[in-house]
Amino acid sequence: MKLQHYLGGLEGLGPVSTETRIFVDVWETRIFGIHTAMMALSPQLPLPETPSTFKTIWTWADLRKGAESLNPFDYFKFRYYEKWLGGISGYFVDNGYITAEELDALTEEYYNEPSKPLPGAGDEAIDQRVVQYLVEGDSPKRDVAVTFEFKVGDTVAIRNVPTVEHTRLPGFLRNKFGTIETVYDGAYTYLCDTGPDGVGAAMPVYCVRFEPSDLWPDNAERNFSLYADLYAHYVEAPEAAEASKAA
């Protein structure tokens, strides 16, 4: 599991940024726009056809996987939208939209001539699809029948699932115990299949309450609780966890 998912409770990582601006530099707005357009133009969505040449699937999960594939020390070195830029650039190279050599050449070109105009755009059908996507969104809730194994008040154990590319389970919760606070109505999927991590078909989601003193013994403030919304695959009965350890 990657270091950047184990940060809860770690010390000595330097000052916490208190930056409140959504965008610090103008170029960051363009990266956000590119990401939004890629999501809206992904072919799996039931939206009107457009002349866009973007024909592969891109989701928030792909963006996160791109950032998380960075060496952890690079991950902490780069700013938020720099990680987005790296993930998006790698995706376009990996999916054949541009070669690494072409991307390097264009980068060098704009470094040498910063005032050079950026490529134009503005196809109305593409713009309308992006706007429709922003208005309608893409809910993870699915209308399928599922079985709820736990109820409010149950004590549960958090599994230590094998993670390859991406996970929705914070590292500091693995192998810990919590209490079911809320059982969400319905079944929920994710933006992509996380493979051996276990999130694929729609499943229940639970809000689990944790006591910080259990997560970080002798190193936590008192009189507050930590809550995490977790997919059912990450949660199991305490006796199942003990049986797994014994095996």
TrEMBL record:
Domain Nitrile hydratase beta subunit-like N-terminal: 1-120
Catalytic reaction(s) noted: an aliphatic primary amide = an aliphatic nitrile + H2O
InterPro entries the UniProt entry points to: CN_hydtase_beta-like_N, CN_hydtase_beta_C, CN_hydtase_beta_dom_C, Elect_transpt_acc-like_dom_sf, Nitrile_hydratase_bsu
Keywords: Lyase
Entry keyword Manganese: no
Domain Nitrile hydratase beta subunit: start-end pairs: 139-236
GO molecular function, one term: nitrile hydratase activity
EC number per UniProt: 4.2.1.84
The protein's role, per its UniProt record: NHase catalyzes the hydration of various nitrile compounds to the corresponding amides.
Family statement: Belongs to the nitrile hydratase subunit beta family.
Protein name: nitrile hydratase
